Amino acid sequence: MIVRAALADAPLDVAAHIAAVADAHSGASAVFLGTVRDHDPDADGVVVRLDYSAHPDAARILTELAESVDADGLRIAVSHRVGSLAVGETAIVCAVSSAHRADAFEVSRALVERVKAELPVWKKQIERDGSGQESGRWVGLGTLAR
């Protein structure tokens, strides 16, 4: 059961995602948090923020991605941020509950991998070079052309 699939322009509430998948029939919950880090192997400087933008169909596609991994006995809550995120902020939350841990881990990982590969959300990586100047470039472009 998909209990949440959303894009958000405000900080993601991890506890709300966990609560959304809580169920008396579930003995396991797996939660993945993707956060903005201060480095990237291809960065020319220190990463200071990521600016996310989304295709108009991104919310619908996120729901479809969640539906594609759903099965009986699961509860799924997934959200992805858009807008400007500082280092340390959460960009994605994926919570999955099931009767057994193996299903929760497997479905959570599968959904996060599909979101990363298929959700038309793009990020502009803002870096600070050695002089303190900031510059940005688009990275990790998704499946739909920008």
UniProtKB/TrEMBL annotation:
<dbReference type="InterPro" id="IPR036563">
    <property type="entry name" value="MoaE_sf"/>
</dbReference>
<dbReference type="InterPro" id="IPR003448">
    <property type="entry name" value="Mopterin_biosynth_MoaE"/>
</dbReference>
<protein>
    <submittedName>
        <fullName>Molybdenum cofactor biosynthesis protein MoaE</fullName>
    </submittedName>
</protein>
<dbReference type="Pfam" id="PF02391">
    <property type="entry name" value="MoaE"/>
</dbReference>
